[in-house]
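Structure representation:
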Amino acid sequence: MTGKEGGENGKSFSDILGEVMSNDNYLVGAEPEESDWDFSDWSGYDFRDFGGWVLREKFFGIPTIDGRGVSMRIVQTDPRQFSVKTSEGEISVGFVLTPVKAKGFPTILIGKDITGGERVLRNVREPLAWHQVPQLLIGTLAKEMGSVEKNSLAEGEEATMQWSGFLREVLLAKRILPDNYRPTDFMVRDRLELGPTAEFNEQDVKFAEMQITQEEVISIAYADYVLT
């Protein structure tokens, strides 16, 4: 997969993800009509003030007409400090996308090769079938959340599009729900080695989440990756 120039639909996946991560109001205007929902201040976690290589983290949900949906996480990393090796060379990784709780969905890495071309990486230990968009989502993703109209993504050859391409399209079309997860108090205390009665603030929560996320991304990077 390579980035293309020009127009909204020509944006690279990295460009779209960069905008999603940097704009707290990315989804403003995408709220379902008459829902009274407010999609502003979709902030997630901004780790940049800690000076590490994990920069930001955001969560979103993909709605389906069965009401269950799929929760996803985006982690933005510093490509100058985070890379993975493949048989076709080293890839500098800027984004990691993982399912939050759902099973049967892949982890994908978005990065660039030495020429600057965008690349999507998959873990060879994960079944290839995971990279095909499930029938649960094809044809059921709401055109406007809550609607059962046929999704344009299900038409023609795009019904077999890869998961990475599907994620790119739903993020670009803003057919997602803002979401957020936070570490439990136990996780924060354990990570920061705090006693059961010690107090902590939101900065402590963010620092604990950054450390947890770093460890998860490092463990992800130990897998064998190939270009999709």
Residues 13-182+221-227 form one domain. The first strand starts at residue 45 and ends at 46.
